[in-house]
Each structure stands twice: as C-alpha cells, then as structure tokens.
C-alpha cells in the first residue's frame, strides 16, 4: 500500500471532522481505513474514490445522503468553471442563445447521456447562474436563475413526441415519460450540486455545509419535516421495527428465567451435601399486554402521529390486542381501519374523512376528547392495558380535564405520553403538557432516534 499524496491526510481529517459535525460518527479506525483508501485508489477515478471512502467511513445506510453532499464539497468534480466538451451556445452580441441551449438540452435528455448533461449543467451555471455579489469579484450563484431561464420541464412533451414518432403502445409511452421526467430531475440536481460547488469556492465549504447538507432521516424533527423528509421517515419504519424486534428477542432470552425458587433449590441441594450447586428458578409467564393508542391527528402533529402509528402497526405482534382512537375535538375508534397490509397513508386519509373527530371549530381539544373516550368506550382501558397518548398537549386554552386523565391512568397497567415538541416548549402558550406530565410520564419524541429509544423502553418483556 502506497502513502496518500502530500496534503491529502490533512484534507481527509477535515472531511472526517465535517462528517462528525453532521452527526455521522467516525472513529480513528475508520479514519485510518479511509487513509488506506486514498493511498490505494487512483484519485482521478472520482466515483471509485467516493465508494471507497463510503465503505471505509459509513456504518448505516441513512448516513449516505450526508456523506455524498459533503464529499462533493470536499472532493469537487472541478475547480472554477472546469473544462468539458459541451459548451453553451452564444449569440453574436455576447448573450446566451436560449433557444439553441434548450435544443441542446433536449437532445441530451433524449439520449440520456449523463456525463454530457453534467458538463452542460456546469457550463450553464457559469453562463446563467451569476446573481451578482456583495463584493467586487465575488459573485453569488442561483439555482433558481438557471432553471427559470432553461425551464427543462417544458421540454418533456417535445422529447416524448420525438421518441414516440414511430408509434408505440400506451405502456411504453408511460415508461418513456417517466424516464424523461427522471432525467429532467437528475439535471435539476446536477445544477443544484454545481451551484453549491461554486458557492463553496467563494464563501468556503463550512458555511455552505451548514445550510446545504440535509439531516439524516433519524435526526429530522417530525414537526418541521416536509414532504421528501416524511417519505424518507416512512422508509425507515420497517428496518427500525426489525431492529427493535431483534433487541426485544434478546431481552426476552436473557429475562426468560424468573426469581430463584428457594424451596426447590434447597431440596435439590440435599443431593450435593447442602451446597446449592444448581439453582432452580420460577418459570416466568410474561403475557403480552393490550395496547390502547390515543392519538391527536390534527394538522399540527399529524406527521408525528402518522409515523408513530406506522411503528406501532409494524410492532403489533408484540401485543395481544391493539385499539386505536383518533381525536381532534372528540375521540372516535378507528381500529378497524388499521388492518395488517393496509397502506397507512390511505388509512390516515380515511380516518380524517370517515371518523367523527370535530364538533365545533376543528382545533385540538384534549379535555373534550378524553371525556368522549371515557363516555363512549368505558371499557377501552383496563388493568391489562398499556395506554399510549400521542400529541403535543396544546388544548387551545380549553379545559384540559386532568381528572379524566388521572382516572384513565389509574385504570391502565401503564400510561405513557409521547410529545413531539421540544421539552423547553412544554407549558408555553396554550400547552398543558407540564400539567399532564404531573399525572403520567411524558417523553420528548422529536426525532426517529428519540422515538425508537422510547418505544424500545416501553415494549413488554
């Protein structure tokens, strides 16, 4: 193994420190392995270098998006404008010929030449992406400015018409349409990456990394997650449920023996001169408890409730019975909608459409919802039940009905409240979280990591 080129070890250390700042744990051993990768691979083969460093430094798949973004900043594809065979067409007066540029982009999208598309993205950003700058010679770069002038989405119909000129069936046309849409999305991503690279050259890598590097899915806060992040969160549910189920199996294996049976142990010791060589234990017969989920599905916490119900549904075999009650202003049982195999996104849509959750203005009313649960389903919570409440505890300044929650907690075997808000916000404004927390254990569950830790601690053994 040869040594990495001069200067690269320090650059690698900077890269590793950037990964750590973005919550990717990298130890000394992984760093040494990454150094060996730099000394082995040809640095001109950038894709190989990316995969080699990823294999050396990463331990979980959810860390890859953070790694790729930082890799592009610390190991850029080019410096400045770079060089390539694809050039932007210019008019005699020195302006970019947008019509010719769009025709060139259309041809590349039709052919699916990724390398040429990347070179065009680099050239287009250099020609159209300048948005001025605060200092002389220090331009800023704009993704919006590039894509607004090029408008790649408007090329879809023309490209599809060219490809379908010979006549094809409906299925082939739909497949082709999706391929072109994906190529357009890839070109938009290339432009975004190029703008990020050029901006990092001007402002520095660290300032750009602070805003450009996405959070790992497990660290995204439920209440601030947007569409793409929520989709990533949903994809983590089943792997997370498998990990929790495996940990639970290990815990049950180690906890399958009960307390020592003194009488039987002493009786057996008579055969060994009174020395208890082989202790005997009482057999444990752990039963799976019933789970009652009481969840707020109002707009403010709908994403959190959705994800938590996904996790509960994936772990439902850990419980003998699961009942789900949704509420906004009043509660309604929706257990019949949560059958195994159902898509939870469509189930949540049916919950909001079919369940009777609103009585007045559609704002969360925890006190009224608790009362309706007790009045209409008095036997829902019993001595074998574990009650799980999902919500932020914001009552819109209405009566929180603490006495009803106290009664339910007294009936249940266990009661726990999962709150997606930061702990420092509990009790602020219309939040009754601290008052509820005086009656039942309340857990902060802002991210998947926190939720997994709480759910694992609450699972039966």
Commentary on this structure:
Helix 9 runs antiparallel to helix 10. The protein folds into four domains: 8-74; 98-203, no CATH class; 260-285, no CATH class; 290-458, von Willebrand factor, type A domain (Rossmann fold, 3-Layer(aba) Sandwich), CATH 3.40.50.410. Helix content is 51%, strand content 8%. It contains 19 helices and eight strands. Helix 14 links the parallel strand 3 and strand 4 (321-327). It starts with 7 loop residues before the first helix and ends with a helix.
Order of helices and strands: HHHHHHHHHHHHEHEEHEEHHEHEHEH
Kindly provide the name of the CATH class of the largest domain: Alpha Beta
Q: Please tell me the CATH architecture of the largest domain by its name.
A: 3-Layer(aba) Sandwich
Mind summarizing the main beta sheet? Answer: 6 strands, mixed
* Share in β-strands: 5-15%
State the helicity in percent bands.
40-55%
Q: How would you sum up the global shape?
A: globular
Low-confidence spans: none
Structural class: alpha/beta
């Amino acid at each position: 193994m040869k040594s990495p080129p001069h200067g690269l070890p320090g650059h690698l250390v900077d890269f590793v420190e950037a990964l750590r700042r973005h919550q990717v744990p990298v130890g000394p051993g992984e760093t040494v392995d990454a150094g060996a990768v730099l000394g082995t691979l040809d640095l001109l083969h950038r894709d190989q270098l990316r995969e080699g460093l990823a294999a050396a430094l990463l331990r979980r798949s959810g860390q890859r998006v953070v790694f790729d973004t930082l890799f592009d900043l610390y190991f850029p594809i080019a410096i400045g404008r770079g060089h390539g065979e694809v050039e932007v067409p210019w008019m005699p007066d020195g302006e970019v010929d947008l019509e010719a540029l769009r025709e060139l982009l259309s041809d590349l999208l039709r052919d699916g030449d990724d390398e040429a598309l990347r070179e065009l993205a680099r050239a287009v950003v250099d020609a159209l992406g300048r948005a001025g700058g605060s200092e002389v010679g220090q331009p800023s770069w704009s993704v919006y400015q590039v894509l607004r002038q090029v408008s790649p989405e408007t090329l879809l119909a023309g490209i599809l018409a060219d490809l379908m000129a010979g006549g094809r069936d409906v299925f082939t046309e739909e497949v082709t349409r999706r391929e072109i849409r994906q190529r357009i999305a890839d070109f938009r991503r290339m432009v975004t990456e190029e703008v990020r690279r050029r901006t990092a050259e001007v402002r520095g890598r660290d300032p750009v990394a602070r805003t450009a590097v996405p959070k790992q899915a497990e660290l995204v806060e439920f209440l601030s997650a947007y569409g793409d992040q929520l989709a990533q969160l949903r994809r983590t549910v089943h792997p997370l449920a498998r990990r929790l189920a495996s940990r639970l199996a290990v815990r049950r294996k180690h906890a399958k023996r009960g307390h020592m049976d003194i009488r039987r142990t002493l009786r057996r010791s008579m055969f060994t001169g009174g020395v208890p060589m082989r202790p005997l234990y009482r057999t444990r017969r752990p039963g799976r408890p019933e789970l009652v989920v009481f969840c707020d599905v109002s707009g403010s916490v709908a994403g959190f409730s959705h994800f938590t119900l996904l996790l509960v549904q994936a772990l439902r075999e850990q419980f003998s019975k699961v009942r789900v009650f949704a509420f906004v202003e009043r509660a309604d049982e929706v257990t019949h909608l949560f059958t195994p195999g159902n898509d939870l996104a469509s189930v949540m849509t049916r919950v909001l459409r079919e369940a009777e959750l609103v009585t007045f203005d559609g704002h969360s009313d925890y006190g009224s919802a608790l009362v309706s649960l007790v009045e209409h389903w008095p036997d829902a919570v019993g001595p074998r039940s574990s009650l799980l409440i999902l919500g932020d505890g914001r009552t819109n300044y209405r009566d929180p009905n603490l006495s009803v929650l106290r009664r339910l907690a007294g009936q249940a075997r266990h009661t726990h409240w999962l709150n997606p808000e930061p702990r420092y916000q509990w009790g602020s404004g219309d939040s009754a979280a601290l008052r509820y927390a005086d009656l039942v254990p309340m857990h902060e569950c802002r991210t998947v990591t926190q939720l997994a830790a709480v759910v694992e601690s609450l699972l039966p053994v």
